[in-house]
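Good day; I would like, with your permission, to put a structural problem before you. I would ask you to consider whether the tokens describe a fold that such a sequence might reasonably adopt. The full record is reproduced below for your convenience:
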Amino acid sequence: MKNPALDDHQIGLEARADADDHLAVRTWLRLLSLTTQVEQEIRTRLRERFGTTLARFDYLAQLERHADGLRMSALSRFLMVTGGNVTGLTTQLEAEGLVERQPDPDDGRSWRVRLSEQGRREFAAMATEHEAWVRELFDGVPPRDQQRLYELLGQMRHHLARPA
């Protein structure tokens, strides 16, 4: 059933699928389209409300989860970006007073980065609104269906993670 609110521009990647394409292909394109749509909405809201980017939000979120800080290499792995990207963001966020870079006590050649007090306060405000936005975006799906979708996506991840 086609939603008239989703024209060709709004439907995006899902428009690549035809009704006679395999269900797996149509499902993949729908999932990709939904992910892109939700991500774009979050990006827009972060920019308009906080003047920040999703990359910066994700960076701060990783540090918030690791109170003792992270080595730059670990931060790079968690964020799935290059070390150069992490270094650039760290330099910017440090200049703004949101993070602190300290020598790693376990390895004098490495740096650990952690949220500053200001960074903790600012991230807490962003995270609270971010959660409310995500909940709002899922409001149209009943909780039991959200739970089922969560389980099905977990099943798919488990399937993909098994050894070849």
In short: The first strand starts at residue 70 and ends at 71. The domain at 46-161 is CATH 1.10.10.10 (Arc Repressor Mutant, subunit A). The two ends are 37 Å apart (CA to CA).
